[in-house]
Amino acid sequence: MGADEARDPGNPSPMTPILTWAVPVEPASQSIAFAPNMTPGTFIDPPLAIEAVFEPILFPSSPSESSVRRPAHSKKRGEDHIPRPPNAFILFRSSFIKSQHVSTDVETNHSTLSKIIGLTWQNMPHDERQIWHAKAKKALEEHRKKWPQYAFRPSHGKTKGAAEKRKVREVEPKDMKRCAKIAELLVEGSRP
DNA sequence: TTGAATGAAAA
DNA sequence: TTTTCATTCAA
Fold first, then answer.
1. Does A20 map to a domain?
2. Is the minimum distance from the CB of A60 to strand C below 7 Å?
3. Domain range holding A140?
4. CA-CA distance, A91 to A3, in Å (whole number)?
5. What is the spatial distance between Cα A48 and Cα A114, in angstroms, rounded to a whole number?
């Protein structure tokens, strides 16, 4: 760490409309419930209870065609393998791909897609990203609940002989600019 | 098996 | 601090 917290480049937005936050339409359908094994005595009240995880405004997941969940890479890794809990970006990316907002029809290269989605992620307003962070947090809680004893154990000597990673194809700057434009348009165009 | 992104957590 | 790995699927 250190004094390099200047991780917030241009984000002045002096005239950002702040998106009309459509109040959380979540009545009592999602009432807070204590876990069965949790005794009221041990309940620690979190400073900020963000129980309600609102749906993203900019890039909502497609309501249709989203039931068949593939086991991803069921090969390799024994069935005992517990996958890491997905972080906010991974969740966002998955949703983005599934939604087919821009995927496989125009770009089949997932590496490029990752670039576009990454740029889109950075262009997203803070509020929107926070929603995905909340989702990630929730996923983490579920993960902990499902595998309480899970712990991330990265293998050290994994990357082969530390050989040079050969790049398949570096995205040309021209295409890079195109990606940036796409990402920008994606966010701008999704604004209400 | 790799690439490509971001982020959480381990070493 | 650096490295691993979570998702995703065409090469």
1. no
2. no
3. 110-147+172-191
4. 30
5. 32
For residue A142, the Cα-to-chain-centroid distance in whole angstroms is 16
- SS3 call for A32: coil
> What's the structural domain count of chain A?
1
The answer to whether A136 and A91 have CB atoms below 8 angstroms apart is yes
Q: Is residue A177 part of a domain?
A: yes
Q: Please name the residue whose C-alpha is nearest to the C1' of nucleotide B3.
A: A111
* Three-state DSSP state, A98: helix
Q: Which residue is nearest to nucleotide B6 (CA to C1')?
A: A89
- pLDDT tens digits for A133-180? 999 999 999 999 999 999 999 987 756 543 454 555 556 666 777 787
3-state secondary structure A158-190: CCCCCCCCCCCCCCCHHHHHHHHHHHHHHHHHH
State the Cα–Cα distance between residues A29 and A38, nearest whole angstrom.
21
Closest residue by Cα to residue A132 from A170, A84, A93 = A93
Query: Does the pTM of the predicted model rise above 0.70?
Result: no
The reply to whether A63 falls in a domain is no
A90: nearest Cα among A28, A139, A55 = A139
Give me the amino acid identity at A95. Answer: S
Contact A128, A171 (CB under 8 A): no
